[in-house]
Give the backbone structure.
Amino acid sequence: MVWLNDYELLYLIRSENDHVALKFMFQKYKKFIWKQVHYINRRPIEQDDLFQEGQMMLLKAIDTFDESRSKTFMRYFELIMRRHLQKVNQKIPALILHENLNFCDNYYVLPVNEETEVILISDLQREIFEDYFVNRMRINDIVKKRGYSRKKVYNTIYRIRETNKIVL
């Protein structure tokens, strides 16, 4: 099997349903998948998930590759894997770790729920967040309680939703 090229391996996998050839194909492209995953700068636990996505794309490439097109299997696989990894990477939330938190002196950290991480908000946003999202107060009640204008409350709610992607 060592001297078989991709087209011969594809023939064995597709027509003969050869599991040894499939295993060899995975072994052959293992380093290539890791190389593409490492181009995406993520934590090691996320890299494992991306590697599994790359392996699924290898299976898809084996199933959908068309020899009549003027592309090699390697290039075809690389193309669909890169596109898929970029799509998956965009869905993974970006986490930024800050060593020095002095810039956050006037901000508060509030847990939203299990799915969302934490958000940093100002005094005004914290008050509106607690009243509107946590205590489920109506906007008219917030205006009466806090003394802010209606427009200010609406704009603050909008900013909280936009910056933290809260859908309630």
In short: Residues 95-105 have pLDDT under 50 and may be disordered. The helical segments are 6-15, 19-39, 44-64, 73-91, 123-134, 139-146, 150-164.
